Amino acid sequence: MPRVEPTGAILGASIWDLDLSQPMSDKDFGFVLHALGQHGVLRFPNQKLEVPDVHRFSVRFGEIQGPSIVDPEKVTDPYTYVGTLSNIKKDGVYIGAADAGQDWHTDMSYRDTMGFVNVLYGIQIPRRDGKPLGGNLFQLVRHIDR
């Protein structure tokens, strides 16, 4: 049974004992929605997810809006809308969008219908002096350094 641990701040809570790498029951998803309504921001510590897991969890909240540069008519990969932000290069090529989110912004605020939630999964987070770098004010999933 999942449990909620509020941060004690105005926003935020951690959800424990819920494995997002597995399909979620309607009861557990209702629990997550209720916690989201109460706390505004949720994090799910100690998760080990693959792209299909992130996709499955994300679509529970509705259609994934995805990046604005993707032509929906040309999408063949079912996980196209699960974007990767990364400044890491593999074989001389960035493995994701290296410059996305450089400045403060609200995701998809320019769309006719704004998104309901943002799902973020941090894998390798750059640090300086032991502190994580980056512009995200909230961590929805614990950062896991590989």
Tags for this entry?
alpha+beta; single chain; disordered C terminus; 16% helix; two-stranded antiparallel ribbon; 146 residues; three-stranded mixed beta sheet
Task: Describe the protein in words.
Helix content is 16%, strand content 12%. With 146 residues, it is an alpha+beta fold. The strands form 3 sheets. Strands 1-2-3 form a 3-stranded mixed sheet. The protein has a two-stranded antiparallel sheet with strand order 4-5.
How does the major sheet shape up? 3 strands, mixed
**Helical region count?**
2
Strand order of the largest sheet: 1-2-3
State the share of residues found in helices, binned by percent. Answer: 10-25%
Q: Supply the helix-strand structural class.
A: alpha+beta
H-E string: EEHEHEEEE
Low-pLDDT runs:
139-146
What integer value in Å does the Rg equal?
16 Å
Strand share of the residues?
5-15%
Short description:
The chain is α+β, with helices and mostly antiparallel strands.
